[in-house]
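[Meeting: bench + compute handoff]

Bench side (C.D.) handed over the final construct sequence. Compute side (W.E.) agreed to return the predicted structure before the next meeting so the bench team could plan truncations. Sequence as handed over:
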Amino acid sequence: MKKQQLILVSSSLLLLVLLFFFGKTVSNKPSAIASTADSTKHEDKPVDFDKLLIHAKERLTPQQLQTVAIIENSVTRGDVKSQQLNAYKQLSLFWRDSIKLFEPYAYYTSEAAKLENSEKTLTFAAHLFLNNLKTEEDHNMQTWLATNAKMLFEQALVLNPANDSSKIGLGASYIFGNLTDNPMIGIAPIREIVEKNPDNLFGQLILGLGGIKSGQFDKAIERFLIIANKQPDNLEAILNLAEAYDRKGDKVNAVKWYGVVKNKVGNPEAQKELDARIQANQ
């Protein structure tokens, strides 16, 4: 069910490059559930987390299943909210550290954040979903990730309506998550922020990715160049910049920027893919 990707580069190449450059983190989705809520290649169906969790638990050993069951049933009488918050945090850490599965890790992190209701935890959880949304190919999972990110950003903005990062994240959820047929709902507030502050590189990145999604390569290149000039080690920006030139048909600049990326990573698999892209443009 490969739909148009939300960023220019293939998700596998971007993740490979980022994995080498920044190190292995759960937020870069080292593992995911193979069957996403029984979705098919020809039908859009809402992702049901309960079904995701069933698939996830199929990977557990009997001992691990017992551990999860104990945590899930740990909420009793008394301070139920505090107990539930603690259970969510324990489940989040279990799925992150012991199993390394993104979906249950992100879900329980978000549930804990909603209960805790602090701007820091809400935005952290929101960006978990958004970061994975940018490299997700499955249409149904895109919507699930975006919906969760949207709710978290909205709750964070209730606490701090002036947080531009949360406003941009909320807009990005609309742009990349199949939440609306009108992309301006997401683009307009981000554009307003960037016009006031061109140095908001998060906003520039999202607008660049949005430009790619709409086929406006020149505008996307302009955004990515701003980031590359200020953050020359921002691999996500320069890799997308190279791909934007590639799709535009500017072979000279595509080769140049693929080469810049290649010089910043030492992963042989990533370098092999980058060499292939360079050769294809020569």
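W.E. noted at the follow-up: The CA atoms of residues 39 and 45 lie 6 Å apart. C.D. will use this when planning the next construct.
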